[in-house]
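Input (structure):
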């Protein structure tokens, strides 16, 4: 009996998260035994160059020795105390140093919890019930956020999830991404009822679909005008696309010349907290709340909500919005997060950007060479290869759903056979790391021509 068959007897679908199943590409998922730098090793000892990066956290590559040491040292001091620790304070300070607008930070264990809490906080702060999300954006699997969710829900072609009550679903309004008029219409239709707009400021869960220029600033302006909060879900982009996340990347594009890193932001902290209640709507106006996950936990279960001090202070025990967690701010997870952020300097981001743009160029070239219709879309170092005939950029979920999933599946399996692990869905971003050196990149590049022929159906 294979390990997968064994797994299926005791675990639904054999996986603990649906995105790990090979549902849309076919075949059995690969079981991983260990990972190091840019490489994964399966239970048969086979090596793969990894472009999944644990779905985002592995910015430094797998099992970075300093991160592992930090976790081992923390483990030796005790696994969990259920009491505050200095490491939580240090990690919150590190987050705020990179994102000063996250004036206060609360740690939880998953991105799902972070987004769920941000929504509750927005409702508590405004006294309103309705939430607006964008079709194709994924904000974790809490009931209210599963409508037209991207990621695994998109991969499975589901409109949402069974088990969500009509009452809950009815409090989430779904709007097409990048559609200013649709959002205007929703605010007009529900005056004084919308608590928050939640967005991935650079969506990567319907494949990478970057925001139109000015779209995030538009979101800031319209929410401020209507007294709703704006939530940037940077669970995926935070500390991955830039030292200060997508928010930092957009701001640095506005404030500094291209290719110049923003200076350390610590000195801005005191002037920006608490942030003003109504934003100016300028191109670099911050959201009220952020959610972070993935990189901030360095591969351990950790995520965060951060934002305006006056809003964050509504959380219990200071305020009436309840949020809790036995393992929140866990000492092993905070140790991994601190070590990861300490190591993630501008050289790390420059390395990830460079390997990402080299790989995007190589993928384009290999697919053009063979005549495979496709479109590569990127947001920072994140990118997706959409298979299919696209005569214009993909700007929303409806367009992303027109991709040729069968061509992707053929490409995916040819890459896997050649020892390259891609996310098993065309609705996901490829994740690279600072450990992807020339050797790792070359192995991906060498696999491309064969996979391109396979995508065409000519393998
Ligand atoms: C943008 C975004 N938000 C939220 C989540 C949920 O995070 P988690 O899987 O840690 O619950 C994810 C990914 O899973 C994500 O990509
Ligand atoms: N981009 C999609 C995810 O990161 C989801 C991971 C998971 O649910 O396992």
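Output (sequence):
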């Amino acid at each position: 009996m294979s390990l997968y068959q064994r797994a299926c007897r005791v675990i639904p679908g054999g996986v603990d998260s649906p995105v790990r199943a090979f549902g849309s590409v076919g075949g059995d998922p690969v079981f991983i035994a260990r990972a190091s730098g840019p490489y994964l090793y399966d239970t048969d000892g086979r090596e793969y160059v990894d472009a999944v990066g644990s779905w985002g956290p592995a910015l430094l590559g797998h099992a970075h020795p300093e991160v592992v040491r930090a976790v081992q040292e923390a483990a030796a001091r005790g696994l969990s105390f259920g009491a505050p620790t200095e490491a939580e304070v240090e990690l919150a300070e590190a987050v705020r140093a990179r994102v000063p607008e996250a004036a206060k930070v609360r740690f939880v264990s998953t991105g799902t919890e972070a987004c769920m809490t941000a929504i509750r906080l927005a409702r508590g702060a405004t006294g309103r019930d309705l939430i607006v999300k964008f079709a194709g954006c994924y904000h974790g699997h809490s009931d209210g956020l599963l409508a037209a969710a991207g990621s695994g829900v998109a991969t499975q072609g589901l409109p949402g999830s069974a088990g969500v009550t009509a009452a809950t679903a009815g409090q989430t309004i779904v709007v097409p991404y990048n559609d200013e008029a649709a959002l205007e219409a929703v605010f007009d239709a529900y005056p004084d009822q919308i608590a928050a707009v939640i967005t991935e400021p650079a969506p990567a869960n319907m494949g990478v679909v970057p925001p139109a220029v000015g779209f995030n600033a538009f979101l800031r302006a319209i929410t401020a005008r209507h007294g709703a909060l704006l939530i940037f879900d940077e669970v995926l982009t935070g500390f991955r696309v830039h030292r200060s996340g997508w928010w930092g990347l957009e701001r640095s594009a506005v404030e500094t010349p291209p290719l110049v890193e923003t200076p350390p932001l610590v000195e801005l902290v005191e002037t920006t907290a608490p942030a003003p209640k109504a934003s100016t709507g300028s191109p670099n106006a911050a959201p009220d709340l952020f959610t972070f996950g993935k990189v901030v936990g360095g591969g351990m279960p950790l995520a965060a909500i951060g934002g305006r001090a006056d809003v964050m202070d509504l959380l219990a025990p200071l305020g009436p919005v309840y949020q809790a967690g036995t393992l929140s701010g866990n000492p092993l997870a905070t140790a991994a997060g601190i070590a990861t952020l300490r190591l993630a300097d501008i050289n790390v981001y420059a390395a990830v950007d460079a390997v990402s743009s080299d790989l995007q160029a190589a993928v384009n070239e290999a697919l053009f060479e063979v005549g495979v219709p496709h479109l590569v879309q990127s947001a920072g170092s994140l990118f997706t290869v959409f298979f299919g005939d696209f005569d214009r950029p993909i700007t929303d979920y409806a367009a992303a759903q027109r991709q040729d999933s069968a061509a992707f599946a053929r490409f995916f399996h040819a890459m896997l056979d050649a020892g390259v692990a891609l996310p098993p869905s065309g609705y996901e971003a490829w994740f690279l790391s600072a450990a992807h050196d020339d050797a790792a990149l070359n192995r991906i590049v060498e696999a491309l021509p064969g996979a391109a022929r396979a995508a065409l159906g000519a393998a």
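Notes: The radius of gyration is 21 Å. Residues 346-370 form the longest helix (25 residues).
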